[in-house]
Structures are given as structure tokens and as C-alpha cells.
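Dear all,

This email documents one entry for the complex benchmark we are building for the journal club exercise. For each entry we list the sequence lines for every component of the assembly. Then comes the predicted three-dimensional structure of the complex as a C-alpha cell string, followed by one or two observations. Please use this as the template for your own entries, and keep the labels exactly as they appear.
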Amino acid sequence: MSESTQQPSAQTQAFMRWFRALIVIGAVAWFAVVVYQNATQPEASNPFKLGLDLAGGSHLIYEADVSGIDPIEVPQLMNVLRDVIERRINVFGVSEPIVQVEKSSFVTDEPIERLVVELPGVTDVSAAVAEIGRTPLLEFKLYSAELDQQQQAVENLNSLTLASSSGATIGEVKVNGEVADKTGTVSPFLDTGLTGRYLETASLEFAGSQTGQLANEPMVAVRFTDEGAKLFAEITAAHVGEQLGIFLDGELLSAPVINEAITGGTATISGSFTPDEARALAQNLSFGALPVPITLQSTQTVGASLGVNVLEHGVKAGVFGFSIIVLFMMLWYRLPGLVSSTALLSYIVIMLGLFQLVPVTLTAAGLAGFVLSLGMAVDANVLVFERMKEEFRSGSSSRKAAEVGFIRAWSAIRDGNITSLLSAIILFWFGTSVVKGFALVFGMGVVVSMFSALTITRTLLMVLPEVSYTEKSFWSKLLGCGLSK
Amino acid sequence: MFAITYRKVWLIIAAVIMIGSALIIGLFGLKQGIDFTGGSLTEVVYESAPTKEALEAGISTLALGGTSVRESTDVNGREAYIIRTRDLSEEEHGAINDIVLALGDGGEVTRFTSIGPVIGQELRDKAGWAIFGVVSVIVLYVAFAFAGIGTPVSSFVYGLITIFVLIHDVLVPTALMSLLGYFAGVEVDVLFVMALLAVLGYSVNDTIVVFDRVRENLKLNRTEHHKKHTEPGGIVRDEVTYRLTKPYDEIVGSAVSETMARSINTSLTTLAALTALYVFGGVVTKTFALILITGVIAGAYSSILIASPLVVAYAAYQARKVS
């Protein structure tokens, strides 16, 4: 084996150093573009997620009373509760609501089951609370062809009104004795008086192939109480051949045709459910209102204008903080300072990218933690540069000094960062949602800053020219740091 | 090295600061916010605000017990009021909204928080446990990382001194918070606890860097002496003793001066970020930034002028006891 294959030539080494540095800079630049696009494009797949205190909205904490329930069943019931509340909120039309089951931590004497509801953009809590506290309604209604025709007529009339420019107005349209509103939404279904109140249980079933339905189609089987069974039998007996609509919270689920009088007190609801949907519906129905009673424990509402203001100020603080740190590093450490400023910029880009990808919900506290971490992120570089300076002044070449600097500073960087990381983990573990956000940003900052301050800084430092301190040349002045002795 | 030479002066100053801070906290106490005590806070902003008396009279019709109304300005400089009461039910919340919006012109409720007493209590417990947990982990880690540091002071002492320094660094900002609470009505909230925990993390980092250099310098300035013991049963044990080639206080002194530039520079960059947060950041994080600024200054001071002098003082005390 020749000498040259074991020891690459000086030229090859220099090429490799530049190659690595360019790859690092290219990767960070590409990442920056992705972050920027995600942040600015309205249809981006990973936009920043703003917490309620920045975006405005409401945060509600409910306490569930599980005192009379077998502890084994509690987790399942809490999940049912979550599903029910989630559905009610969806009806309310909130974008990206969060409904979570939360258990009080073990520091309290008795575990308390909680339901945390976050409603971005909703500042009228009263309306939201009313919606959440509402009981779901299961209704059986009969389809009426007559009503449907009238409905068609109303729609036609309305379209006529809209179309006619003569200014002729149409008076009240009466449908079934009631005044139809001008939008013409008259439901073609008639109330039967049969509601979820008469329900005893509901369960998940799968259709057999012999009934003419799709094999294994998930369905919900309901059993009525005695009173309900009687009512159901009467209705079905009187309306054979008609359609019976099944409504949940005013929405039509399915409208099966009544084939014969059903006297057994059972019925099945099918409506192209997935098994999970059918199970959820069965749970929701059989538990009637809510599986466990809940009481509102805490409310927090932040107006959108306040949130925007906090966000703008936080960003401004970050920009100013970054500028001062860069200025300081460049004045004190000169060329290495410029390198560490580049590393700090990469740190910001990587952190912002992680905020989008993970995604981390940004809060005022998280933002403050991030600004704080900017100051601490350069610490590893400061440690390395101080060591490097010692080596450089005691006669090592600049590149050698940098290598030794990294090795010597490592134990301090390691010990300091491990304690910080442990603190972040404990905070995350104990914390409430606000503290968790801060702890997550803090912990991520520790890990990412170690990467940026060690890997990126080292790669970039290695492409700087190799000089010695005694040269007193332009480069050696740029590479020397601090106040020269 | 002045940090070691005048160690008695620094330690007396530290003792004065710590006792003073503890006295301030004991005397003025901490004003706990609704995060911990439970209660409600309503911020209402007006284009044209009613008088404070009118607002108080309106709210008193609800008979909620002790309520307080404070004048304030919102982020855009409009007139605002902050109303504090006990925690409210949804009906009571609605009633307060109706009353405050009926008064004045262009009223808008920009912030509402109501926290039940159970959650407040739990948060207080959690805060206590979190601080306890972080401190324990730090002591254990320091004792572990510095194990085998050898003569003349054991690694456990470094761990204990780290804790002592932590207490100093936490007492100072807490005393500031106590004064702010007493004179400016600033309340302790979750953000304050987070600021304290961040101070803990920062301070221990600072102290570890100095101790790391002490550890390194100890290794460079000692000679190893091996002594072979033959124990019954033929087991040969190698006993290593170290002898320092320089006095301990000189070794610690040089470690302090070698890490001084780093300590000051990192503190300056962190302070730069925090000052930006204080000056430009939102109202919500102003107190948070102030507490951290105080904590970082205390941390920089203590890592240079308390931690190392204390470890030298302990070594001297130990030497006196032996002789």
C-alpha cells in the first residue's frame, strides 16, 4: 500500500474541509428556505403552531367526578367523554380544537381526572361552555314525502325571488302550519316523540350477510326501554313502507325503510360507519348525556389582539437579542466570533424547523425560553474559544489550537449540558401544559445548541487558514481573540 | 488570584446578601397570584373608560366578596382595568362581563382567567416538587461527575457547595420578587417559578465550569504514589495516593482566573438576550426577564466569588482539624 492512500495529500485534505463546510452551509440554507416557506405560505403542511396565549382563544379545564365508578373502567369512560365533547365542539365549528384527558399528577393525594379543552380563536367562552354542557340528542323521525315536496316548493319560490328583478316579494310560506324561514330549510321529517330518552343500551354489531346488507358492515344495535319499545312498535306498525330517519344532534345518520312492525324493542342503526365510528356512537348513545358528570374548574381566555402583541414583541426581542450577541461575539472573538454567529444562526434555523416539524406549540413562555436559550447557546463556543485562545497564544498553530480547544472544553460542556437536560426532563415531567412548553423548548435548545456549537462551528473553523500567533499577520490578528496582551 | 486571596471578604458579602434576602422575603413575603391561590382575573379595555368607582359599584351588586379593581393600560396604550375576584362560575363570569361592558364606551374583555382552588393547590405542590427534583438531580450528578477528584476535598463537598451557591442564586431574585410584590403589587405566577428553575440550571452550569477546571488542574498538578498491599488470601490491592505539587488554593485560584473570561462572556451574551426580552418583549414576560437578569448576575457573581472561595475555605478548615 502506498503512502498516499493512507495519508491523503494536503490538497485533498483542504478540499475535504471545504467540501464539508459547504455541505453544512448548504444544508442549513436549504433548511432555512423550508422553514421560511412553511411559515409564510398559507397552505404549508407544517406551519408554526401558536398556543392560545399567542393566537387568542380559550382554555377550559373540567374536572370529572369519577367517585362512583370502578377505577378499572375510568380510563375507558374518560375516552368516551373526550369523544362526546370533541363531537360537540366540532358542531360548534372551531378550527383545530384540542380535547385531552389529563390525570392530576401523583403529587396530589387523590388522582383527579380532568378534561382539558382548548378552543383557538374562541373568546366567547360562555357560548362554548354552553355547547359543551349540552346533552346529545338522538331522535327518530318519519320521512314525509309531502313535506319534502313542500320543501322543494319553498326552494323554488326562493330561487324565484332571488331571480326576479321586479321586486315582487313573496309573503310567508306556510309549511305544515309553520312559517318556513326564507332560507327554506324545512326538514322533510316529522317528529315521532321517540328520542334517546327511551334508550336502554346501544352496542356495536356487525351485519350478517343473510340480512341483505353488506357482510360485516358495522352497525349500532339499540335496545329501547319498555316504554320506548311500545312507542317504537306503534310507530313502525303505522308506517310500514316509510322511511324512519335517525338523527344525532340534528344530523341525519341514516334513514332505513320500515319493512314491518318491530315489536321486540330493538333496532339497528347503519350508516356506512367504520367500526370505530360505530363503537363511538354506541358508546355515546348508551351513556346518554355524558358518561361522567363534569364541572368547570378553570377558564382562561386571551383576546386575539393581546396574543398578536405578545408574539410581535417576542420576535422583536429575539431579533435584538441575536444582533447584540453577534456583535459581542465578533468584537471579542473576531473571526471565530463570526463562525460562532453562523452557528448561532444555524441553531435558530434548526430550532424553528423543529418547532414546525414536531410540532411544538409556541407559547409566550416558550418564546421567552427560546430567547433566553440564544444567550446560553453560544456558551459552548465561548468555552471552546477561550481554550483555543490559550493554546494559540502558547504556540500552537490556529487549527491545532482549535482541535485542542474542542477536546479540552468537552468535559465542561458535557457536564453543564447534562445537568441542564436533566432539569428540562424533570420540568417536563412535573409541569402543567405551560411549563411543559417551556421545558420542551429549553431541552431541545440544549441538544441543538450542542450540535450547532460543536459540529457546525468545528467544521467551519477548519476551513480558516492555518497561521501561528507569533506571525502577527492579518489572519493571525483575526484569529486571535479577546484583548491581546 | 483575588477571588481566593480575599475569600473572607467575598464570603462575608455573600452571607450578608443571603441573610438580607432571606430577611426581605420573611418580612414582605411573596404575593401569590391566582395561579396558586385560585381566583379570577378579568382584563377589560375601553375606548372611553368609566371611573373606577362606577366599575366597583357595578361589580359589588354581584356580592362576590373581596374584589379588587386596578387601573392599567393595555399593550396599545388604551385605558384598561384589571378586576380580581374569587374563582367564578360560568354564570358569574357572564354577569361580570355584562356589567363591565355596559359601562364606558367600546369595552372589550381581552383576558379572562378563572382558576379553581384545587388546581391552584396542585400547581403549588408541583412547583415545589419540580424545584426539589431539579436540585436533587443536580447534586447527585455533580457528586457523580466529580467522583474521584481526590485530595484534599471529596466530590460530595463540591456537590454541597453547588447547592449552597444555588440557594444564593435563588434567594436574590426571590427577594427582588418579594420587594416587587410589596411595593408594586407584582404577583408570583407560574412564569416566576420557571424563571427560578432556569436560574437554577444556569447557575449550576456556571459553577460546574469552574469546578471542571479545578478538576483538570488538580490532575495536572499532582504526583501519584502507588503502594501495593498484600492482603490475607493473596489479594494484591493497589492503593493510590496523590500529593499535590502546588498548594490547593493556588490550583483553585488559577482555575478561577482561567475560567473568568468565559464566565463573564457567557453571562454577557445571556444578559444581552434577557435585556432584549425585557426591553422589547411583551408585558407577559417582563417580570420573567427581570427575575432571570437578577439570577444570571447573581449566578456569575457566585460562581466566581462564592463557589471557589468556599471550597478553599473548606479545605483550610479540614487541614486545621487534622493538624
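Observations: The first strand of chain B starts at residue 39 and ends at 46. The domain at 39-115 of chain B is CATH 3.30.70.3220 (Alpha-Beta Plaits).
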